[in-house]
Specification:
20 strands, alpha+beta, five-stranded mixed sheet, globular, lpxc deacetylase, domain 1
Length: about 300
């Protein structure tokens, strides 16, 4: 368990297009002081700040969109997943448009640039520890959100267990079907098992989504595209890449609670709407969790025997 908050040693820049707007965008990840959290800044709007918190979630249709005082930033889940998975607490994300770049549809590029010169589990490379304790949200009672057959929840873990995640999806498509992933959440496992999983979509949905003003920046090099019979454009990076990407989305969305979660995240047939609803339910249930540092948590566990 990381004891200290972390940020970047130096800025990292990315350029690309927004998946839904199709607009070119430039984004820089910049170091931030302890206890800042993750803050988006619209450089095209005089640095207007939007904190990456659940209270700013405005839309959850095919992406997670934040809005504050009418200013929006869309498709934030991939970069937030990278920061959450790598254990980065404080960062400014400066971008000159209303949507984060989609890059290759995963968060592999974010991970690679952040870790240049170092390893996923240490403070080398471009990740640096700060002189402030890291705080965790420790789940003590189960919390669930259900919508029909869709469910997302977070449950306590044992004293000796690492945070964990389980995700299940089921699609009536020969390339997907029923997929399930269950794994301990560590920086190493995130980099190895989750970061490279790309977003996916169906040819049959393209015209409908474009009619909604979505996926204007979608292309065969930034998503896995499926037609009726199989995968249209690329080989999969993992045999079960689809469920891995859904878990990536969940980690980006649950990061909006503002602290890393010590618990077992579980989701079935879910999506951004239920992910963010779980984040909200969690924050509205203070009797179900405690916020403490790693040292405080060890003291509590030691006292409990």
């Amino acid at each position: 368990m990381l004891r200290f908050q972390r940020t970047l040693r130096r800025p990292v820049a990315f350029s690309g297009v927004g998946l839904h707007t199709g607009y070119a965008v430039h984004m820089e990840l910049r170091p931030a002081p302890p206890d800042t959290g993750v803050v988006f800044r619209r450089t095209d709007l005089r640095g207007f700040e939007i904190e990456a918190r659940r209270k700013h979630v405005a839309k959850v249709s095919y992406a997670t969109t934040l809005m504050k005082k009418g200013v929006m930033i869309s498709t934030v889940e991939h970069v937030l997943a990278a920061l959450y998975g790598l254990g980065i607490d404080n960062l400014y994300l400066d971008l000159d448009g209303m949507e984060a770049p989609i890059l290759d549809g995963s968060c592999a590029r974010y991970m690679e640039e952040i870790l240049k010169g170092g390893a996923a589990a240490d403070a080398l490379g471009n990740i640096v520890e700060q002189d402030a304790p890291r705080r965790y949200l420790v789940v003590e009672k189960p919390i669930e959100v259900r919508q029909g057959d869709k469910v997302a929840g977070v449950y306590p873990v044992g004293a000796a267990e690492a945070p964990r995640a389980t995700y299940l999806i089921e699609f009536d498509h020969p390339a997907i079907g029923r997929q399930r992933i269950d794994m301990a959440l560590t920086p190493e496992s995130f980099c190895r098992e989750i970061a490279g999983a790309r977003t996916f979509g169906f040819v049959s949905d393209i015209e409908y989504l474009k009619g909604l003003g979505l996926i204007r920046g979608g292309a065969l090099d930034n998503a896995v595209v499926l037609d009726r019979d199989g995968i249209l454009n690329q080989r999969l990076r993992y045999p079960d890449e689809f469920v891995r990407h859904k878990l990536l989305d969940l980690l980006g969305d649950i990061s909006l609670v503002g602290h890393p979660v010590i618990g077992h995240l579980r989701a079935e047939r879910a999506g951004h709407a239920i992910h963010t609803a779980l984040a909200e339910r969690l924050l509205r249930s203070p009797d179900h969790y405690r916020v403490c540092t790693a040292d405080e948590l060890e003291d509590v566990l030691r006292a409990a025997g």
